[in-house]
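Morning F.,

Quick status update on the modeling queue. The single chain you submitted on Monday has been processed. Sequence for confirmation:
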Amino acid sequence: MIKKSLLTFVLLIAATLYCSAQGIGVVIVDKDGPFTNIRNAPNGKIVKKIATDKTVGLVVTSPKNGWWRIVGDSYEDYDIGDPSEEVKLTGSKSGYWIHYSCIGFFTRNYGGQRITLRSAPSSKAKAVYSFTTEETPLLMDKKGSWLKVKIGTHIGWMEDEWWCDNPLTNCC
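Structure tokens below.
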């Protein structure tokens, strides 16, 4: 019999791999109020409010002027169920959107590796900031294998190999 914790780990890794093929897996990192708003269009009508004290994962794609389209019509609530519970979104026929300032991911530099943010999506672009501690960058944009992120006041591009969307593991 497989232990519950091992099964949970395997399911989370499988979900991460599936999600990364469909879009970018992120977590809600919004702490500016009691709720994060999900909208029916960029800056559109609010169709769902998610409590900011929840641990929530979702998959996003197609950034547009600071807004990300949520893939599908659901999100994962890691605070209920084991390993998590899928929660359906309703109230929109045109899809669901979330602002970049509400979503982020975890960096994989848990071994103290240096991650460098660059001025453009290229390893030859000028370095604008670097760090060795684990961070939770806001996700602004994506081009190829590069993610445009914001960490504090620093904005730059990092390679997606440092991305981890799972709040329950360190993606190793």
